[in-house]
Amino acid sequence: MHDFIAHPEHGIVWISGASSGIGRALALQLAAEGYRVAVTARDHEKLAELQAQANGLAGSIVVLDGDVTDPEDMEHVLASIEYEHGTLALAIFNAGVYLPVHAEELKRDDFEQSFAVNVQGVVNCLIPAVRHMKAKGQGQIAIVSSVTGYGGLPTSAAYGATKAALINMAESLKFDLDKMGIRIQVVTPGFVDTPATRKNEFPMPSLISAEEAAAEISAGLKSKRFEITFPKRFTYTLKLLKLVPYGLYFRLINRSTGWRDRPLAGGRRSVTPHPAE
């Protein structure tokens, strides 16, 4: 039963963080494939625009406003899905924030906000979703992490830590969810062209569009793979880097990003690009 793959006839898809970037593109991708997709975010206007954009597609989009940092909001979203829209077949927890961190200018709020949205926000969605799927005896969950969760990178002390936590969370939950008929996957994208990454001033290796990322995720959701990662040449290179000794790892990251040559102190801009939702 842990090989369950959600198809349109099985019920509704829920995507958090769907107002922009990967979440938005994925909602349209799945709606085009005939799925009914419930989208959640704090920006109602963007969600309404997304819903209108799906007009004429094989499937449809349902707007369910909510803030992932508010557990009651997420309980209400799941209740609305369950009692107004039908069975939750697939949940994709994508909401996240990227706040660059510089060691010479540490700010408590950067860490608190990152963990509140990227980690606790997933937990707030996960608890009602698993409860619903457990009662139905089947379901599928995908947690969107990032390759920054593989190892430390400049400015990612908060963002990367949250994404590493999500990878570990998905790995750990898989043991029990398998026995409950619920399939869990983790999504680890490389660099994706989103509003967050467009702020970067330096070239990003293997950059792909949000639409390309959505197509990759959609295909991965229909596979039996635990990890959905792309583009593979780039993401597997980062995986391999974690196998080298730390001394070499830090030298290679410094060389590839040019970080060692960047000055400390105020006024420095964030120049190292990062994958983001």
UniProtKB/TrEMBL annotation:
Stored InterPro entries: KR_dom (IPR057326), NAD(P)-bd_dom_sf (IPR036291), SDR_fam (IPR002347)
Xref: Pfam families: adh_short
Stretches assigned to the Ketoreductase domain: 11-190
One annotated GO molecular function: oxidoreductase activity
GO cellular component: membrane
Bilayer-spanning residue ranges: none
UniProt keyword annotations, A-Z: Oxidoreductase
PANTHER family registered for this protein in UniProt: DEHYDROGENASE/REDUCTASE SDR FAMILY MEMBER 7B (PTHR44196), DEHYDROGENASE_REDUCTASE SDR FAMILY MEMBER 7B (PTHR44196:SF1)
Family: Belongs to the short-chain dehydrogenases/reductases (SDR) family.
Protein name per its UniProtKB record: SDR family NAD(P)-dependent oxidoreductase
Provenance organism: Rhizobium grahamii
